[in-house]
Design brief:
The complex is a heterodimer. Chain A is of the alpha/beta class. Chain A is built from 3 helices and 7 strands. Chain A has one domain. In chain A, the strands form 2 sheets. Chain A has a 5-stranded parallel β-sheet, sandwiched between helices. A two-stranded antiparallel sheet of chain A has the order 1-2. In chain B, a hairpin with a 2-residue loop joins strand 4 and strand 5. Chain B starts with 18 loop residues before the first strand and ends with a strand. Classes of the chains: A alpha/beta, B mainly beta. At the A-B interface, helix 2 of A face helix 2 of B.
Chain lengths: 128, 142
């Protein structure tokens, strides 16, 4: 039986949004790496810290309702909107801000950007 | 804006010697919600490995390899209609190379708004459909 842990993710330097609380649940436990070049280290780290299951979104998709957290390397227009629109907590490795046709869906509740692996470690040390 | 009807059927120039064909692809799928983006003058492309969740907003294509980074001055041909690239965001080439992901903004801007943007001339965008051709041709090689 997998053991899940909560993880708070704040935005990194120059980033926007959040903090997000990532908490995988049975049936919604996937940390989806919707990034180029395989599983991004940030997605792996989020999985390690939460007990979620990391998957490469570009090798077989993951339905929105199974995603506990989507990690994206979006340049600001498409993925930043699509995942928050489906109410999936979304972490962009780039420090993007809401923009594009779907900007109205990009809210602090579902989106955080500019996050680096070391930010996760700092956040957790600082969690009250 | 100029009238384009006269050249809509023009094909990609045959004189490609001295120019580098950087990319070539055929459209496989046009998502039902692509119009959300085209209304804002944006076309979003992804390669066919994109997860199904991204299909509804995207033009999915079978392009594989990018021969050289996109730079201003290159031309993107959509079904033969050329669009000169004016600006390329700092992550645009990485996204295009890795994911076949291109965000084309038909806004005439010479500076990108977002790091993933590729800005082209401000003119009527081309409505793509499965089977449409995408080609990207570089500047003349010295």
């Amino acid at each position: 039986m997998a053991e899940y842990k909560k993880l708070v993710i704040k935005h990194g330097p120059g980033g926007w949004g959040g903090p997000l609380v990532i908490e995988p649940k049975p049936g919604r436990e996937v940390i989806a790496s919707i990034t180029g070049g395989g599983i991004h280290p940030l997605a792996q780290k989020i999985a390690d810290l939460t007990g979620g299951v990391v998957k490469d979104g570009f090798r077989g998709g993951v339905p929105f309702d199974q995603i506990a957290c989507a990690v994206i390397d979006c340049g600001g227009t498409a993925r930043v909107g699509v995942y928050p629109m489906k109410k999936v907590p979304t972490v962009d490795i780039y420090p993007t801000k809401p923009s594009g046709p779907l900007f109205r869906f990009i809210t602090e509740e579902f989106f955080v950007s500019g996050v680096r692996v070391q930010d996760l470690e700092n956040n957790n040390n600082n969690n009250k | 804006m100029i009238g384009l009807s006269g050249i809509l059927c023009r094909m990609i120039p045959e004189k490609d010697e001295g120019r580098l064909k950087k990319y070539s692809a055929t459209v496989l799928h046009v998502g039902a919600l692509v119009s959300e983006f085209t209304e804002a003058g944006i076309l979003v492309f992804f390669g066919e490995s994109a997860p199904q969740e991204l299909y509804e907003f995207s033009v999915i294509h079978d392009g594989k390899s990018l021969e050289a980074d996109l730079v201003p001055g290159d031309r993107i041909f959509l079904d033969g209609e050329p669009f000169v690239i004016l600006a390329v965001g700092e992550v645009a080439n990485t996204n295009f190379r890795n994911l076949g992901h291109l965000v084309m903004k038909f806004n005439g801007e010479t500076q990108v708004e977002m790091p993933g943007d590729v800005c082209v001339e401000k003119k009527q965008l081309v409505w793509l459909h499965p089977g449409s051709k995408i080609e990207i041709i570089g500047e003349e090689i010295a």
